[in-house]
Amino acid sequence: MRRRRTIPTKPMAILAAIALPLSTAAAGYAVAPGEPAPARALHRLYTPPAGTGPFHQMTRLVRHGDRSAAAALLEMVRTPHAVWFGDDSPEEVEQLVRETTRRAVRRGHVPVLALYNTPGRDCGSYSAGGAQGTAEYRRWIDAVARGIGHRRAMIILEPDSLALLPSDCGRAGATVGRGEDFADEFEGGPDAEDASEGDAFDSRLFGAGAGVLGGELARAEAQAEAQAEAQAQEQMARRGAHRAAAPADIDPVKDLPEEEHADTPDEVHVEPDAPANTPTGRPTDNLTEKPIGNAIDEPEAVSNPTNTPTDIPLDTIRKAPALTPTEARSRNAARYAELNYAVDKLEPLPGSKVYLDGGHTDWHPVSSIVRRLLHAGVDNATGFALNVSHYQTDEDNAWYGRLISSCLAYVADGGNPAECPDQRWPRLRAERWLEINVLNEPEEMKHFVTDTSRNGRGPWLPRAGSHADPQSWCNPPGRGLGMRPTTKTGDPLQDAALWVKTPGESDGQCLRGTEGPHDPERGMVDPEAGEWFPEQALELVRNAQPSL
To answer: What ranges does the record give for the region Disordered, renumbered to this chain (predicted)?
Structure first.
């Protein structure tokens, strides 16, 4: 991630005058459609200064007579979006965060801070970087906390850090993290879920639940579900048969097959000077082995490429090699310890709200991401963030968020996350399960935020076989800006729709399974991750939904 260079206010004002005046709403805050602008600005979201990339692009457009495109780009960069921090020294990040939060509070705005500095970030791929180890990361987080102080901030903590654990790096399961398919998240494919999930579903829904709901569902509704019910029962029977011989206790990493690496010492990610416990005193050396409720931990992101839409070579997925089981245990434990430390340091600040990484709806099943969130300390955070830098629709994000929040509440009451509804359950069946098993009020549950910066047209669906590795997450063509940032979502569990990813900035030099350097979908060399991408920026404003 590169730090954006910002431009002076005066040239931007001149350009604004040339490119056509825009409404004050676009300049300072965004509200939900139909909502009146607030009388005071205390809950407005903060817009950081624009970088040099959009400034130069708008200048060129104006010189070529395309004032409407320049005006649309200006509105995009003047819409509230997150400020990203990563790869800076503790001294640098403290100063940068302090400047950002002070500037925001002077305007009466709330900044969104995306912290992106965890060790082993992005599996060493396009956005590689981060702190050199746990001790360095803790010092960095301490500096961020000092920079925030008592001022307000919404904190998006380490995007992709949980949906892409170190144990996922270099494995076929990592493909699901980029919107391909999460079939291989289940051992043996999507029909091979834990037998306990099928058993719990039968007893809770069709046993006790049948009496509770009997007579309350309309006849037409029941008939419409009849076929889906029969199919689901058949699937559950197959799932139970598949899992019948599975071990009773499986750790996410511990029980992976051991490999012979006698000449390779185990790499421990936690430095000797790192404290053994987080600020709250929770031990961090066995976080990956801690049972959750009545859960039986399963291997996460198990490789099964035959169940994915395309067979993808491992070397096209992540640059980092697959880890040995011992290395995976160590690095996962370090990742969880780092996130727990950050939550415990930042959430108690008087004006801060912390949201952990929750991936997106086409990445991990609900039960898997819930386990990861719990290991990372979501109990002590405000909640989780969905769809960061991705393209899933608002409807899918809201449903996924509700399922995760509900499952977290269910586990807090002693339930097993494997019993929770998955995002691919029939909607009505999942609604029934929630009605029976989750009775918590929204204020008692974990909340979430979503990234709507580039989801206006939903995810890109490349033609089958068009690329060896489609990388549908990487600078996909034809996407558009999504819902404008707002804290008025109409959903009691969703705190905000945000622009976390800076629209117009590249995801990386996408190769889609080729040797490169050209992106075969675009016929050009894409800018490096975090650099301004003029062609994509124009696509986003022209395809915005709702339109600019």
So the answer is: 224-314, 503-527
The angle, 0 to 180 degrees and rounded to 10, between the axes of the packed helices 52-63 and 534-542 is: 70
| Interatomic CA distance for residues 456 and 547, integer angstroms | 9
Q: What is the pLDDT of residues 118-172, one digit of tens each?
A: 999 988 777 788 999 999 999 999 999 999 999 999 999 999 999 999 999 876 5
CA–CA gap between residue 86 and residue 18 (Å, rounded) = 35
The string over 342-351, giving b where at least 16 C-beta atoms fall within 10 Å of a residue's C-beta and e elsewhere, is bbbbbbebee
**Closest of 529, 540, 532, 530 to residue 482, by C-alpha:** 540
- Which are the contacts of 535, defined by CB distance < 8 A and separation ≥ 6? 522, 524
Distance of alpha carbon 105 from alpha carbon 112, whole angstroms = 12
> Contact, 248 vs 296, CB < 8 A?
yes
Tell me how far the alpha carbon of residue 47 is from its chain's centroid: 21
- Residue reference for tokens 């992101």: 301
User: HSE on the CB side for 289, CA within 13 Å?
Assistant: 11
Its sign, for the CA torsion 281, 284, 287, 291, is negative
417, with CB counted inside 10 A (0-12, 13-18, 19+), is buried
Retrieve residue 170's tokens.
């270099």
**Dist CA 123 CA 506 (whole Å):** 18
Q: Supply 354's token pair.
A: 């912390």
Per-residue pLDDT at 36 exceeds 90:
no
> What is the dihedral sign for C-alpha 486, 491, 492, 494?
negative
Token pair of 4 as six digits: 């954006």
Single-letter amino acid code for the residue at 495: D
Identity (one letter) of the amino acid at 261?
Answer: H
Residues in the chain: 548
| pLDDT at 15 (0 to 100) | 56
Nearest to 344 by CA among 146, 113, 141, 493: 141
> Strand 447-451's sheet: what is its strand order?
83-85, 112-115, 153-157, 352-357, 383-386, 447-451, 494-498
How distant, in Å, are the alpha carbons of 86, 89, 259 from that of 94?
Answer: 11, 8, 43
Q: What pTM value is reported for the model?
A: 0.74
CA distance 12 to 27: 12
Other CB atoms within 10 Å distance of the CB of residue 106: 8
Residues with a known catalytic role: 160
